[in-house]
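Workshop exercise sheet. Pairs work together: one partner reads the sequence aloud, the other fills in the structure field after running the prediction. Swap roles for the next sheet.
Pair: D.N. / O.F.
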Amino acid sequence: MAKKSPGNGLREVSSIFLSNNVEEGQKKTVEGFSSEPAEGNTQGSHPAEDERGVEESVSVHKRVAYVNTEDGQRGMRRDLFKYLEDGYQIRSMTLRKTDKGRGSGGPEKREEVIIFVKGP
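Structure field:
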């Protein structure tokens, strides 16, 4: 079994992606990858690179906490409606309700409602 040099394996793999060979009479294509610039491209960059768009996005995360009192609940409702009026959209919301049991030894009843938007 003959030993291969690491450079030969790399050359074989790179030849799959980079094409320097253009046969006689064959037109250079702009599809795929090539280490040579495409014909008619004087700047040396691929035409697809010149036509691509750049999209930037900025994410801002806010966490607003309220004290678990009646005033805190009112403030939460007030701010929720203010955000909705300002154009924010609800993606998900969790509502919890706890009812104290009857008497001192009665069981608590807990309910939870999760509201969310499906899809993007």
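Discussion prompt: Residues 70-85 form the longest helix (16 residues). What would you look at next?
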